[in-house]
Amino acid sequence: MNRISIVLFALLLNVSVFAEPSLKVQADSAYVKENYLEASAIYEKVLEEGHSSDVYYNLGNCYYRLEKIGLAVLNYERALMLNPGDSHIRHNLDLARNKTLDKITPVGEIFIVTWYKSVINWLSVDQWANVGVVCFLLFLVMLGLYLFGKEIRLRKIGFYSALVLVVVCMASNIFAWNQKHILLNRNTAVVMKTSVNVKSTPSETGTDLFVIHEGTKVTITDPSMKGWKEIRLDDGKNGWIPTDCIEEI
Length: 249
Hints:
Blueprint: H1 2-19, H2 23-32, H3 36-48, H4 53-65, H5 69-82, H6 87-97, H7 111-120, H8 125-148, H9 152-184, E1 188-191, E2 195-199, E3 208-213, E4 217-222, E5 228-232, E6 238-242, E7 246-248
Antiparallel strand pairs: 1-4, 1-7, 2-3, 4-5, 5-6
Helix pairs in contact: 2-3, 3-4, 4-5, 5-6, 8-9
């Protein structure tokens, strides 16, 4: 009888554990109820268990609603880095950027570079990798059609299709590698302070060059100085700011 009681107790305990909603579900529920402060706190806990584009996106939405623009931009940027082809993330990121004080005009770049970046950002690392795998498998099928097809027409289809597929397969792997390189070598950050004086040298006594504000995205060009980072803006301006003024994406 005691054994039966123990078994029943264990079963009830397991049921209660499984019945408890996950952190993600709790956060989504709080968000739907417009409890953005509570939702943001839970989403932060969810991210401690692993990165997710969807969670970063929802967290960005929470901070946007709470008028914490720096944190909103930061989390939208992180979501976009994991899922660069998502138009919803880009749209909300643009909305958040429009609320920042600094309106920076990027330095122009060669058209082919802009085009190449836009192509890479169509898909994420995993998505490009999947495209590469599918194209490789189809390449093998078309190669088989070319080698063993009995009709000239079918062999031509197999030959030219195989050529196209091998090119797409190679390009997909290159794009996936580029995306992974960006993820592993992050050198961008977002300003978290209301305003920051950018210095000419990594010192409080350095000359003030210009001021940047919360939510502005910067590129870190020199992280070697303790307590300071050399940064560059999209318009080409550069200087030094304290490390605690920014949060790396």
